[in-house]
Design a protein that fits this description.
Layout (H helix, E strand, L loop, with lengths): L4 H12 L11 H22 L2 H14 L9 H16 L2 E2 L14 H12 L4 H26 L1 H13 L1 H6 L9 H16 L7 H14 L7 H10 L6 H24 L3 H10 L4 E2 L2 H8 L14 H9 L2 H21 L6 H9 L2 H20 L1 E2 L14 H20 L1 H5 L1 H28 L16 H17 L5 E5 L4 H8 L6 E5 L3 E4 L7 E5 L4 H10 E7 L10 E7 L4 E6 L3 E13 L2 E10 L10 E9 L5 E8 L7 E7 L9 E13 L3 E2 L2 E4 L3 E3 L3 E2 L9 E4 L2
Parallel strand pairs: 1-18, 4-5, 4-7
Antiparallel strand pairs: 2-3, 6-15, 7-9, 8-9, 10-11, 11-12, 12-15, 13-14, 13-16, 16-19, 16-20, 16-21, 17-18
Helix pairs in contact: 3-6, 3-7, 4-5, 4-23, 6-7, 6-9, 7-19, 7-21, 9-10, 9-11, 9-18, 10-12, 11-18, 15-21, 16-18, 16-19, 19-21
């Protein structure tokens, strides 16, 4: 069979090509260079077409990271970070986080986010950094989500206004259970739009998984199951059984620790929820007020003109009207576009809706913002602002949609109307600049101490991380400089959890004690020691003046309130009596002393601690001393320590009733108990929770076998 001339020429050409030899180098470098060039081209394209994303990230990061070391560090923040730290360093399995406002335990998902950081550093500052990072990313995700589905201008407006909004920013700067929600909410909506708007398969698995992650951050996010169900109805053709199976497996994995705890407690949290559900519910405007709170620059007009926000208040007030109105405009536009069609019955409307993916997306957006809000408006328990983080950044996406549609409408009408679109751009810029100024002022005030530290309910007063660390660091440094081998630190309800955790990083051995009724002084035989007194521990200062030699060295500053007081103290040497609670407390000074403090009369007893207790994980040691007064009344003082050093002195004070008389003889009983973490074993697992429990109280015995010590009271 013949071969054509063309075929021969082709064969000749192929045969004449040089064949690669074994010594020829592969073309990988060229391929690698091509990939690098392609990546650089994509980066250049992104920089040109989405340069505003860098601005959004810059603004969001500046507001969230500025002076982040002044982050709030109160009870919840200390509990969360210390649980992450203890889980890593003590081999514990976190099964809960902190307790919700309704009394149930939060799932432990948040703890696992902080564990990698806690493995590297005991400093909770990095937990605040992680929160700021996540919430900065949330602003960027808002831009990408809105641009993908509603256009560039809508995305710029939504992301910049969300990044600079005052209330979301407030939650973006400290460790707390719900504060990591915003980026996961945006990703959750991305997943729903992936299925409903883009009609792509594979969205159900990430949507269910993200809903599980959000529930771990706060139970109210279960309401986001409503837009999820709407998405299932709108896009049934995108559902796959394997996505559901993957979601079930992933949810079982992330909820496994929490399910262990519920099994261990016999579903006590579920019972609590059922009991709450039986309470009488009421319908009011509380939910709407909290929703509005996330849109305005402040909930109450500032009255202190010495603060940055107070100075700017006159030029920020209009935002309290403008931003809610813009949000209302977004709701209106979305509703008009959603319902715009010639009404021919619900079936026809539904068919047309299903055939229009963009309108389906608007239905999801409105469902997310409206239905949970209506449900929360009918509630049996009081609502709290953090519940409404699950709506973010929805209102700002609606604002972006409204502004974008306004520009489109003005451009479409041409002529003079077209020029007015620049007014929309100007309004957007004005709102952004005003919000940026207000939020920057708020951050400056918070990091400079221009606030009242007693205005942070439910805590007695607020503390920031930098002030606490500086005070403890100065006490530690003073002890090392003067070669003192002990530091004592007073605590109260507002500081006990935070200071106990932070003090573990000190080099000098430290004893922390509750100063509400008690004062611990060093063993006279060991010489003086350092004492750090809290800002509101006035009783401690009064006791020091009367019963110790104290030299005030410094007053470490605190943001927003009075400073700490740093002393070098030495007790007044007392003659020991023979009266004691065997092995625990020996009475000093055979007669009770009197103290006048804060317009009240106090009875003070002095003791020597007879045994030692070493610091242990989340453990405190307590004495409960009870004295009987004239007329059958009694007073109790509970003295709690993080450690006990034999020979140290204890002053226990009892607040006497006004107008009451002290009997000639004082009868006093004492009990001891220990508070330990509730970290039980369940099968092979060593569980970790935020809860503590007390051991059984032990009634202390006297030398003669009784349980009461009697001594002169005046």
């Amino acid at each position: 069979m013949g071969v054509s001339r063309g075929a021969l020429c082709s064969m000749s050409f192929k045969l004449s090509q040089k064949q690669p030899s074994d010594t020829d180098s592969p073309s990988a470098p060229a391929a690698g260079g091509s990939r690098l060039f392609s990546w650089l081209l994509r980066l250049r394209s992104f920089t040109v077409n989405a340069w505003e994303a860098y601005l959004i990230l810059l603004v969001a990061a500046f507001l969230r990271f500025y002076q982040i070391n002044t982050t709030e560090f109160d009870d919840d923040q200390a509990k969360i970070y210390r649980m992450a730290y203890d889980a890593v360093h003590h081999g514990l399995l976190p099964t809960t986080s902190d307790v919700a406002s309704i009394g149930i335990a939060h799932p432990p998902g948040l703890i696992y986010f902080f564990m990698p950081i806690a493995a590297l550093s005991a400093n909770p500052l990095w937990g605040a950094v992680l929160t700021a990072l996540f919430t900065s990313v949330a602003a960027l995700l808002t831009y990408f989500f809105t641009r993908r589905y509603y256009g560039r201008f809508a995305a710029i407006a939504a992301a910049l206004l969300y990044a600079t909004a005052a209330r979301p920013l407030n939650y973006a700067r400290f460790i707390w259970q719900p504060n990591l929600m915003p980026p996961f909410v945006v990703l959750f909506m991305f997943a729903l739009y992936w299925g409903v708007v883009e009609r792509r398969k594979g969205w159900l698995f990430p949507a269910l998984f993200l809903l599980g992650v959000l529930y771990q951050m706060h139970p109210t996010t279960l309401l986001l199951a409503i837009p999820l169900l709407v998405a299932v109805v709108l896009a049934p053709g995108t559902l796959r059984w394997r996505d559901l199976a993957l979601a079930v497996v992933s949810l079982l994995i992330i909820f496994f620790p929490y399910l262990l705890w519920e099994a261990f407690t016999h579903l006590v949290d579920v019972q609590t929820v059922f009991n709450l559900a039986k309470q009488h519910a009421r319908t009011d405007s509380q939910a709407l007020q909290f929703y509005r709170l996330f849109l305005i620059p402040y909930d109450r007009p500032p009255t202190n003109t010495n603060t940055a926000v107070g100075v700017l208040a006159p030029i920020l007030t209009w935002l309290s009207i403008a931003v809610p109105l813009l949000t209302l405009g977004g709701f209106t536009i979305a509703g008009i576009v959603l319902l715009r069609s010639k009404w021919q019955g619900f079936r026809t409307w539904w068919t047309e809706l299903r055939a229009n993916p963009s309108r389906c997306g608007l239905l999801l957006l409105l469902t997310w913002q409206i239905v949970p809000l209506l449900i929360l408006s009918h509630h049996a328990v009081d609502l709290h602002a953090q519940y409404f983080l699950m709506f973010m950044p929805g209102p700002f996406i609606l604002i972006g949609l409204f502004l974008s549609k306004a520009v489109e409408w003005l451009k479409a009408h041409g002529g003079q109307w077209s020029i007015l679109r620049y007014g929309v751009y100007a309004l957007t810029a004005l709102v952004f600049i005003a919000q940026l100024l207000g939020s920057t002022a708020a951050v400056i005030d918070a990091s400079s101490g221009n606030f009242n530290d007693r205005s942070f309910q439910p805590y007695p007063y607020h503390n920031d991380l930098r002030s606490l660390q500086n005070a403890l660091g100065e006490a530690d440094q003073l002890a090392r400089q003067r070669h003192l081998d002990r530091v004592y630190v007073t605590t109260d309800f507002a500081t006990q959890t935070a200071l106990r955790y932070l003090a573990e990083q000190m080099q000098t051995p430290t004893t922390l004690f509750d100063a509400s009724r008690c004062l611990v002084l060093p063993n006279p035989a060991d010489g003086p020691a350092v004492l750090l007194v809290g800002p509101y521990d006035g009783l401690t200062n009064a006791l020091l003046n009367q019963f110790a030699t104290a030299t005030l060295v410094d007053q470490p500053a605190r943001l927003g309130g009075p400073p700490f007081r740093l002393y070098v103290v030495a007790p007044v040497v007392q003659t020991s009596s023979q009266k004691m609670f065997t092995g625990n407390l020996q009475l000093l000074n055979r007669q009770a002393q009197h103290l006048d403090y804060n317009s009240s009369s106090w009875l003070v007893t002095q003791w020597s601690l007879l045994h030692a207790e070493q610091p242990s994980l989340r453990t405190t040691y307590s004495y409960a001393l009870t004295t009987m007064l004239t007329g059958g009344q009694s007073r109790q003082s509970v003295c709690t320590f993080s450690a006990i050093r034999a020979g140290d002195q204890l002053l226990a004070a009892f607040n006497l009733p006004k107008g009451g008389e002290t009997s000639a003889m004082v009868a006093l009983k004492a009990q001891s108990f220990t508070t330990v973490p509730n970290n039980p074993f369940y099968g092979p697992f060593h569980l970790e929770t935020d809860r503590d429990h007390n051991t059984a109280k032990v009634t202390l015995q006297t030398v003669d076998g009784g349980d009461t010590i009697t001594f002169p009271g005046s």
